[in-house]
Amino acid sequence: QYKFRDLTIEELKNVNKTYPNFTFSMSTYTFKDGSQKDLLNFSGTIPVKYGNSYNIPIQLWILDSHPFAPPICFLKPTVNMGISVGKHVDAHGRIYLPYLQNWSHPKSTVIGLIKEMIAKFEEELPLYSLSSSDAARRSELLSYIAKITEGKTDMKSKNKIDGGENEGCFNKITVVGAGDLGIACVLTVAAKSAADKVVLLDPSEGAAKGGAMDLEIFALPNVEISRDFSASADSKVVVLTANYLGNAQTYLDVIQNNVDLFRGIIPAISHYSQNAVLLVASHPVEVMTYVSWKLSAFPKSRVIGVGANLDTERFQYILANLLKAELLAKDAWIIGEQGEDKVPSWTSCNSVANQTEAKADRNSREKVANRAMEVLKGRGQRSWSVGLSVADLTDSILKDKRKVHSVSTLAKGYFNINSEVFLSLPCILGTSGVIEMVKLEEDPLVQEKLQSSAGSIHDLQQQLKL
């Protein structure tokens, strides 16, 4: 079934000469979309020096288009090993390397791939040793998973493994990222009593510093701080606030670093909370919501960005309270991109008041809206204000309020947008995320601006390596 069988066999012979400990077999590989294929794979250990010498277990799956397509690479930790999620390894043990991204036959070879793998692992060791109790718990969990596949267990045994409590009935939120925004989200969600439990999760080394440490010192009720992804298990909503904080040369580099960061986060989060709604607050929100959707493989309804929710709430408040235009405020929305390219729009409405106003003076609404937009420009988006917006959104989701919010959602198919991009649009939110999108008035200028935003976002996404 291999298209280039002779080339594949020749290369694997070379691998066997260099790494005679590898074992070869044919097994069934399951892809992300659920499809399966019998593929050649080999497993073994590679020598890595990180202070001491370590033998790192790996498994490489050889695609049937090899050597013109790169292998799919995984760590294969034993029961007493834990995976260190990082730049090159995600929570499932999948390995990501520049060598794989730039794979090109005949320059690229499996031997060359393994050499780069060793070099990268010597910079950042991908595995660590579990304590005996952790190893025992992991062994028990693996045994439980095996029983599930055989149909020999039920949820009661799961609850026992999880610690004796059935947390499935609780409204649990996980906030990923312990920066200022993450802490603001924890505090505002806790203050709004939107959740029964809030987990602040940050797998980075900085998790014990700054505000996260203060939260731990002044322990808030129902707030847990953790660096372990398993602490997020069974969350109803996962709020993503993590952002790359290093020095990057270009804006594209910053976004690509955020993508790399999410590659180590999203698979783990989606593994532990398979029915969660992902609420993205990382920057830029439209792109990172798209990235979260792709990496999680969740339905589009359960991956949303904070988008223009804060701007919309402010816009409506300014119209109603500062400009005394309450009728306008009820149907007013900020949509599109977050930032300078946001657009004011209006809900389609058949009320007598709005029809009369439109006939009397079609321009009056735009004049008032322009004044409101000028006031809105002076309002920055500080961490605590975004945190309040996040608490507002999580409250609507967890309590199934069916409230309308302007959030980043997949815009393909709307306003003649044909690309997979996320833009802020008015959506009804409930426990399953986006329940329905609200119809807006048809306005050629608004449509033109949204299509322009969609085009620029799509072009940016095309330059990213997912």
From TrEMBL:
InterPro entries: L-lactate/malate_DH (IPR001557), Lactate/malate_DH_C (IPR022383), Lactate/malate_DH_N (IPR001236), Lactate_DH/Glyco_Ohase_4_C (IPR015955), NAD(P)-bd_dom_sf (IPR036291), UBQ-conjugating_enzyme/RWD (IPR016135), UEV_N (IPR008883)
A GO molecular function held by the record: L-lactate dehydrogenase (NAD+) activity
CDD domains from the UniProt entry: LDH_1, UEV_TSG101-like
Catalysed reactions, semicolon-separated: (S)-lactate + NAD(+) = pyruvate + NADH + H(+)
GO biological process, one term: protein transport
Gene: Uevld
Function according to Swiss-Prot or TrEMBL: Interconverts simultaneously and stereospecifically pyruvate and lactate with concomitant interconversion of NADH and NAD(+).
Top-rank taxon, per record: Eukaryota
Domain UEV: 1-131
Natural source organism: Piaya cayana
Protein name, entry field: UEVLD enzyme
